[in-house]
């Protein structure tokens, strides 16, 4: 593993404890030459961050003695007054680097509220320039590399994403920038590329000639309670659809890349997003959860206005104006407090041109072939097809081919582990390019600018019934 100093802004926060400390341990626990410098305004010191991180590791299932040894060996803390006044960070970083252990390489990870991004990025960029650490035109950097990792959300609309990209590019080259969408770190999301481009059987059917419709479903059972202060006014469209679901959409719909590298893949994702028509309010439905299962409604959460129009559910139909997908609807939907936790890409194939059979179940035309690519909770695939039902005549019965990722390979690593290793090795393939982020915002601009009123839905259902007008059945288990 490449030695480096991992500077974690927002080390006192929720993401650090829940995801980043465990991922740092699992990615670099055995590596020498990797040190972590946590940064925060909180009155912490080295001992405190070591205690907190060790506690977080134990919480995530790591043995206490291993957690403690790693935290004590690896972690230090720098306290700042504000995230654009970084003198104490650079002093501490210089001290750590003086041993030569980290070889002058630095990853700056912004696990901070997005309001702080421009100030922090500017302060980091100025420091790089003042210390002659900025790379030259060929990307070569004297005395070790610098990489900038930015958590989501990247902007809140097209204009703010452009402004943030402008700040980033004033100080860093695109090759140094790692915009996180943690869905891209999931094994099964990456497996979409292998599944599509290593199996000619599926890829040859992957177009308007054979595909009737594609659904991308991310159903959550959790709610916004406890983080309503952040979520209210942001909503599911910005929090989930513009980033996570749009990444799944891009990987499902993109053309094969010319090369399997960051440029090749990100170019194709950007291209398909560019070909995607801007979403229209007529092809979108918003929802907001009401009470149910003994829990209060969204509008009753602390910090939420009783008449809040923030959506906790959104469904939107997208159309891709290119040769492969013209006329095929892609419906993206996600919501909170739904019936089950589930992430699936559902590809429904066209029926045979002539129907010769009826289903034994209901005497109707047999179901179309459906491929379900499940990303959560049990990663795998299910392909449905029809066979002859036993008995006289030619009635059909729907059966399945199943593949379970954990059965075949054991549990996949956490997304953040994969992404942190990629930052250290300089691979930007699984990160979002500047143009891609802007294109993803462009698609949803008409919805962000429209006055969308969310439909009420009860906790523990699949969302508002109204969403079915977009042409799918709310319960994803029902074909
Ligand atoms: P937190 O709200 O926990 O904030 C992180 C740290 O930032 C805090 O510990 C605090 O540190 C500092 N901070 C908080 N508010 C402010 C403020 N108004 N101005 C300046 N500093 C502030 O955030 P998370 O850890 O939950 O998230 C960090 C980033 O990661 C965000 O961009 C978020 O969108 C993203 N993210 C988070 C996920 C999660 O599960 N938590 C999931 C996916 C992405 P101190 O007071 O010590 O300075």
TrEMBL record:
<dbReference type="GO" id="GO:0050661">
    <property type="term" value="F:NADP binding"/>
</dbReference>
<feature type="binding site">
    <location>
        <position position="186"/>
    </location>
    <ligand>
        <name>substrate</name>
    </ligand>
</feature>
<comment type="similarity">
    <text>Belongs to the glucose-6-phosphate dehydrogenase family.</text>
</comment>
<feature type="domain" description="Glucose-6-phosphate dehydrogenase NAD-binding">
    <location>
        <begin position="7"/>
        <end position="191"/>
    </location>
</feature>
<dbReference type="GO" id="GO:0009051">
    <property type="term" value="P:pentose-phosphate shunt, oxidative branch"/>
</dbReference>
<feature type="domain" description="Glucose-6-phosphate dehydrogenase C-terminal">
    <location>
        <begin position="193"/>
        <end position="470"/>
    </location>
</feature>
<feature type="binding site">
    <location>
        <position position="152"/>
    </location>
    <ligand>
        <name>NADP(+)</name>
    </ligand>
</feature>
<feature type="active site" description="Proton acceptor">
    <location>
        <position position="244"/>
    </location>
</feature>
<dbReference type="InterPro" id="IPR001282">
    <property type="entry name" value="G6P_DH"/>
</dbReference>
<feature type="binding site">
    <location>
        <position position="41"/>
    </location>
    <ligand>
        <name>NADP(+)</name>
    </ligand>
</feature>
<keyword id="KW-0560">Oxidoreductase</keyword>
<feature type="binding site">
    <location>
        <position position="239"/>
    </location>
    <ligand>
        <name>substrate</name>
    </ligand>
</feature>
<dbReference type="InterPro" id="IPR022674">
    <property type="entry name" value="G6P_DH_NAD-bd"/>
</dbReference>
<dbReference type="InterPro" id="IPR036291">
    <property type="entry name" value="NAD(P)-bd_dom_sf"/>
</dbReference>
<dbReference type="Pfam" id="PF00479">
    <property type="entry name" value="G6PD_N"/>
</dbReference>
<keyword id="KW-0521">NADP</keyword>
<comment type="function">
    <text>Catalyzes the oxidation of glucose 6-phosphate to 6-phosphogluconolactone.</text>
</comment>
<dbReference type="Pfam" id="PF02781">
    <property type="entry name" value="G6PD_C"/>
</dbReference>
<keyword id="KW-0119">Carbohydrate metabolism</keyword>
<feature type="binding site">
    <location>
        <position position="220"/>
    </location>
    <ligand>
        <name>substrate</name>
    </ligand>
</feature>
<dbReference type="InterPro" id="IPR022675">
    <property type="entry name" value="G6P_DH_C"/>
</dbReference>
<dbReference type="GO" id="GO:0004345">
    <property type="term" value="F:glucose-6-phosphate dehydrogenase activity"/>
</dbReference>
<dbReference type="GO" id="GO:0005829">
    <property type="term" value="C:cytosol"/>
</dbReference>
<keyword id="KW-0313">Glucose metabolism</keyword>
<feature type="binding site">
    <location>
        <position position="336"/>
    </location>
    <ligand>
        <name>substrate</name>
    </ligand>
</feature>
<dbReference type="GO" id="GO:0006006">
    <property type="term" value="P:glucose metabolic process"/>
</dbReference>
<comment type="pathway">
    <text>Carbohydrate degradation; pentose phosphate pathway; D-ribulose 5-phosphate from D-glucose 6-phosphate (oxidative stage): step 1/3.</text>
</comment>
<protein>
    <recommendedName>
        <fullName>Glucose-6-phosphate 1-dehydrogenase</fullName>
        <ecNumber>1.1.1.49</ecNumber>
    </recommendedName>
</protein>
<feature type="binding site">
    <location>
        <position position="182"/>
    </location>
    <ligand>
        <name>substrate</name>
    </ligand>
</feature>
<dbReference type="InterPro" id="IPR019796">
    <property type="entry name" value="G6P_DH_AS"/>
</dbReference>
